[in-house]
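Q: Hi! First time asking for a complex rather than a single chain. Here are the components, and I think there are two in total. Is that enough to go on?
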Amino acid sequence: MLEDKNQERTSLSSLGEFGLIDHLTKDIETNQSTTLKGIGDDAAVLDFKDKRTVVSTDMLVEGVHFDLSYMPLKHLGYKAVVVNISDICAMNAKPTQITVSIAVSNRFPLEALEELYSGIRHAAKVYDVDIVGGDTTSSQKGMILSITAIGEVEEDDVVYRSGATNTDLLVVSGDIGAAYMGLQVLEREKQVFEVNPNNQPDLEAYDYLIERQLKPEARKDVKGLLKELEIKPTAMIDVSDGLSSEIMHLCKQSKVGCDLYEEKLPLDPQLINVCEEFNLDITTVALSGGEDYELLFTIKMDDFEKIKANPNFTIIGHMTEERGGIHLVTRANTKIALKARGWDAISEDEE
Amino acid sequence: MLEDKNQERTSLSSLGEFGLIDHLTKDIETNQSTTLKGIGDDAAVLDFKDKRTVVSTDMLVEGVHFDLSYMPLKHLGYKAVVVNISDICAMNAKPTQITVSIAVSNRFPLEALEELYSGIRHAAKVYDVDIVGGDTTSSQKGMILSITAIGEVEEDDVVYRSGATNTDLLVVSGDIGAAYMGLQVLEREKQVFEVNPNNQPDLEAYDYLIERQLKPEARKDVKGLLKELEIKPTAMIDVSDGLSSEIMHLCKQSKVGCDLYEEKLPLDPQLINVCEEFNLDITTVALSGGEDYELLFTIKMDDFEKIKANPNFTIIGHMTEERGGIHLVTRANTKIALKARGWDAISEDEE
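A: Yes, that's all I need. Here is the structure of the assembled complex.
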């Protein structure tokens, strides 16, 4: 839809690489006390004093991870930052800085990059992180974003994927499956639009699902919520590829098994309605959908009373001995082996 | 030339994203004492204690920054790491960790990624840095590499671009211009090869230039060399886009002018011969070539005696007042204004 806009466009080549980087970054300020030097030198300089530094990086490729025909550039910029910040939160750390590298083909005018950058900067503001570096260059085709997120954490607060033990409870924040169904709705609308461009879609019945897909949020609040409850997770991961896949990561790295209860899965009412409309099995969607960016973690059984009534969290299962395997306990009370059916960027690709 | 090989090939889609990442990273070890946790969690965990952390990132795009028809994948991997480590060295810091993100189209078999990764790992070994994270995904076209390098530095050792003052001496490590001429030689050979694929090139007369282009090294040694000389640079930058361009960055950020002496430029004898053969002006090549990955820095005039006879460094000019401007003093002793003609990735792009 980019090509349809009839607005003024500035070609990237008229600015040159340095001009473009200067233009996009000229009024970026830094607010974190740990940022001594941001953009403008060979490298950023940070000072974490006695805290641990955590670093995570993600690459997003047009046509593989996003489709600009229904993903506004501002939302894309926002989401690209959120995805990386979510990884920092999954270490029980506080996100503090990001670097942003962008490769774009000349099909994009300067105004498109400004839109993208406005989303990136909005996310940086919302999550209180400094943009301290990056790179902007041309691509042969499409847009590629690579973001590195940095965070800080006290030595005693770090939570790895590997700390879960037998009898620990499995907990997830928020609800799951909605982002995936949001994508299904958007893809259906895209097909409708291609058949009849004058058709005005009414997406009100899908607003939550679409928001979860286009403007996900990282659970930066979970660290504080758990601290208030006086709970330290034993293991943690963010739900980016799908709940099944993340549970299997936790189990593999912690060398435990897991019983997950189908009836406990936290599902939004809108998701339930739309799964029915699309004739999709809601448990499959919740387990394999992905892109929820909720936090999945384990806690000691003794912490049950502290968390059971908290509206932010749902206990969805418990860890078992490794030889017990990883199972879904269905509503009919049968146990079936869980399979990772997370979204797989490589195998979807075709050239 | 990739397509010409008749070796066994494994398609990336047969592995899936997790399988591919596991395969490429399975025996990566960490050696740095600052690396508490490397690959395998949502983020790496590092501990720099009371030292400063420096972070730099670069994106390399096939067809824009490299041409696989004469750049072997192993060399590309090595160079991609070197380019980023050079930025860390330019802060007078010690490189400690890297993250590596790769997007590739399905045209690349697993064996190609293994080659690339072997170069990345070799560089990590040579420069003693840990590979602590990254992402591997598919692209719509070609290969894109995004590397983030992390380093550590004592508070008092950090050198910015902005610290040069009037009368400081301008110094460069090694020699310059060779990497650019190496590229010219390789491009000529590519054209010869396209006309007659049976022609066996004799590149012995160009070996130094080609090595500078295909296997550049970052000057990780300069920090130690200067420490031995008891010199702390006042400002520093690495020569990636061309000497002119880097001098202008130093002058702009330090708010000074500069007189650069043409006769002082450190040039390899092979470069002199080949510039003659190609009928190119050697000063233009030295000033605008780029990709030398030498360090350009300023020192106090009082340090002249300490450095003047050192074979690793050449004094090529001195800083002046800002209103003096930035000039090249030619062999004929005329002053001409210096222009940034560094290599510009954006304006070269065509779609």
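A: Residues 178-195 of chain A form the longest helix (18 residues). Let me know if you'd like any chain examined more closely.
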